[in-house]
Amino acid sequence: MGILEGLVSGFAQAISLEVLPFLIVGSVFGMIIGIIPGLSGHFAMAMLIPFLYKMDPAPGIAFLLAAHATVAQGGGLTAILFSTPGTGQMRRRCLMARRCVSKARRVLLLVLR
Prior knowledge:
Blueprint: H1 3-14, H2 20-35, H3 41-48, H4 57-81, H5 91-99, H6 103-112
Helix pairs in contact: 2-4, 3-4, 4-5, 4-6
């Protein structure tokens, strides 16, 4: 199998209907973990590992990647709306949100981030 055939096969597996539910569930799980202050993407991945033992490789990797990728978005929600940075990465966003005193400006900051 050549490089191009491997890339095409990987993209076909990534957009298949078998993987899509795992992407959605992983994203929701990652968002929930990100909203809780102090929990990071590494924690989300550690929580998901027991579920991966019986899964196929493609949905399992999609599940992990979706959860890890959306943790930062959940941390941004709490940093902007409640001025509570969950991780060190969100301190700057928390300071930006404090400058946007009104609720409407905070919602605008959520949309523009």
